[in-house]
Write a structure and sequence with these properties.
homodimer; 182 residues; Aminopeptidase; 8-stranded mixed beta sheet; 4 helices; 8 strands
């Protein structure tokens, strides 16, 4: 039995969205996230670790992925999962498009597919489908260089629900974006 | 080499605070957390898993514990750790005193020792001491039955920095308490 149905959808750019995770994906995530120039090395490492944990632990990891493949090569991805001890709240941990493919609408497409997947009920750690997602949270930094990121989330319908002062470092707050799904 | 210096301090109740984790502690945590009547079974399971992860992974787990032992039997504990990708922010994951020993000031004592430990610089995943904690976060529910918990955090100097509506479930918000250490 396949552990998760593969989500496949074509995109005007020619890319294909898939929900399965492949052994070559950790390296692809390192390339995609690194290409954006937005993240510290230790943050790139965290992004890669989530894919590795999904590969090693399967659904028990509770990390779910969507990859956008162009000519069988990943050029963007989203990573999300249910928040433990909540009923229907999800974290969107990562969403990134390779620098060479930004501005094509692929980020919006990945976000829409991720939300559709969460609403449809992803498999839980035991393989049984979870109830539909009610709310999605995204955390990001208040540093001005993230302004394009904020605008992307806002275009996708997310609003700032909380700000934690000096969370990442002195002068670097955490912004918590949220969106109710329905 | 011991992986973490044991913190030992006596308390008027006769209990001793220790920072080492023992193989019998998962069962002790189940007893302590279960005795409070505050938590769902799946939440008790999460509390126990954190101790198990510390025992199996050691410092790499990034979970730190303080136990209050009375006659060598744990009657309360705190669990905390550095928040990945932050400089000096910590989560206090759990703090609980066995129902039979509440009202003795042991919760306050555990909180003060936990803050002192975070300020002193706990060992990181590589064993080297982390910089002192700047900020501590505690998450809890908005459900009225948690009112004694809110009052405890407030007496310890924590204030509500954010509220995430319907986070745990419809009508059950997440409150994020924070305190700046110095």
């Amino acid at each position: 039995m396949s552990e998760q149905p593969t989500v496949t959808a074509s995109h005007p750019s020619g890319s294909i969205i898939r929900g399965s995770v492949q052994p070559t994906d950790p390296a692809a995530v390192r390339e995609i996230v690194g290409s954006t120039g937005f993240f510290h090395d230790f943050e790139v490492d965290v992004a890669v670790e989530l894919v590795q944990e999904r590969l090693s632990r399967g659904l028990a990891s509770e990390y779910h992925f969507l990859f956008a493949d162009l000519n069988a090569h990943p050029i963007g991805y989203a990573c999300f999962g249910p928040i433990p001890c909540t009923q229907g709240s999800f974290d969107l941990y990562w969403i990134a498009v390779h620098a060479a493919h930004q501005g094509s609408g692929l980020g919006r497409r990945l976000m829409a597919e991720a939300e559709r997947t969460m609403l449809a009920g992803v498999p839980g750690a035991d393989g049984r489908p979870l109830p539909p997602a009610r709310r999605v949270y995204i955390e990001t930094s208040s540093q001005p260089r993230y302004a394009p990121t904020w605008r992307f989330y806002e275009r996708c319908g997310y609003t700032i629900e909380a700000r934690l002062k000096d969370y990442y470092a002195a002068g670097d707050d955490k912004l918590i974006y949220a969106k109710a799904l329905s």
